[in-house]
């Protein structure tokens, strides 16, 4: 029987679903309504509420604020929550994937990147409307995700993994553009975080019209959409046009997402949480989910926004509602992950294997020469105050070295340590897509640093490193715990890491949104800046990198054996618990030290080990050496480009490395 078919049993189930969902809706909307009424009562007498909403007195600023700010924000939270929830239901139905949502498919991030880039380079396109630009960006992102996963028959985990990774890259690209044109895009950056602060009813009326039109267009394809829950052959047997129905439904879902992004920015995870709540309430039929999920999404975002406003008042700053919703969505993603059906486990593969074995010595010598040339070139080649390119002479070099050398050395050490951590993680987890950035280890280091900076009045570098290392190690421990339950399945481990990273990024965003002066330092550091590195700090980084990478090299035998699997490794004499603890401790320390220098997101920890493998470096020690040299080369080049590409302005090395490593990560996803 199709998903939308009726029957006594299903009718009873639908009634139970509505009863349970009614309780959930009440649990979400009643507190939100109470908080909204309480906010109105503190600013305006109840007798004036109706007048303030319908026809405010132009001479009363409080009534004007209620009419043009308070009520539009409430209405926008309700409409955006309903639209994202409806989009999530459609995505999940078409892709038969309970983790599909605007945020997990990269659609929201793609729409935001399209708006940012259009604002910079093609503002004339806005004559067609912001919604059209956002729709094009979101549609392009979804097309990339589907193109990456069509060979895997749109397997649920593969689709979500590709979407989350593409979302990370689009977010980094948008952040790079914002930093490049800070004065032009600062307002867009605040809006892009998902701010529901509105000035008037224009956005609300537009969203209401768009949501109503989309709902009307959804009605004709409701029955064919219900049949998509069947297998391919079953759907064709009842005369459903699979491709036409999928295209129409996906277009509507992308449009709903684009409408929200163009109106208020990126709101994360509501499209995942609301459909999941509808399913948990017992809604099995598509018709029930299409009605229940928008109500739940509206209540969820309304209540979240009211809580965000109270929290903002308490800390004296503005909190982005869109970022805070990740605090709800990430734990739900972790909870749903063990319940996600995977068609077949991936085989355990040694991440160091390659069909072409080559001698390591010539390759390592070549990488070393390239690194030396890049490092020396970054010190000598630059721009004069007039913008002309010039090589520094002996007289100029003495003045320039104190500025250039510490930054270049810090970038080199950070790239080397991230690459070493990537080799450890890929071999220890037997997962070729593992890295400090993808598994959320960098985000854990960021949160540890934030806790130290805000908890201690004067936190030195030693204490900052300890906090970052503690956060990184805690994330790695949680990854190991979750991975052990799933037999270290590569896809589940990656999704768990990405979900943890999103949760920790949201926590960091909440902590740093209060306007505290220390937040500026944290935000500057998170972009991957080496601006403030001086000579002593660079020397400290070099010493730490030598010690950590040397310790990893001493563990090369363990790294050779770990990809064989736990039974084989134990049979060959490894104490798995002790070995894993030591290796993950080294990975955490290297990630923490590197993250302090170049921020939590560079993708060097993923791409450098793979580059070494592609060069033919199979054994653990040779792969480690090649990855360390490649990672250092990438970061030195990124730091130099960050200093020179937009001279006299500078771009963070971490963001430049992200823009380099992101396409490589997408290419790896397409191959694997």
TrEMBL record:
Main location (coarse class): membrane
Keyword Transmembrane listed: yes
Underlying gene: fhuB
Protein name in UniProt: Fe(3+)-hydroxamate ABC transporter permease FhuB
Cellular compartment(s): Cell membrane
Keywords: Cell membrane, Membrane, Transmembrane, Transmembrane helix, Transport
Record keyword Transport present: yes
Protein family: Belongs to the binding-protein-dependent transport system permease family. FecCD subfamily.
